[in-house]
Amino acid sequence: SSQGIAYEDVFEGVYYPAVSLYKNTKVTMNFGPDFKCPPQGLKDFRPMSDAASQTMVEYALADIIYHVENEGKLPEF
Description:
It is built from 1 helix and no strands. It is mainly alpha-helical. The protein starts with about 50 loop residues before the first helix and ends in an 8-residue tail after the last helix. GO terms for molecular function: transcription cis-regulatory region binding. InterPro entries: ASH2, B30.2/SPRY_sf, ConA-like_dom_sf.
């Protein structure tokens, strides 16, 4: 059953929860791209290895949008 709201006003970024360990626990994880056991019941999923290139694309687009929105307003260097 629900224990109530755990967190409020948390940044709405992207989070990748994976595992929590206690004491001498060991775990082996496979985040892809070659999945030993691919996720079942999901139409679209990508390996974590795609996250780095996706982040670079998002940063580049954010920079472009910033410069377009602020054209003529930024100081010359």
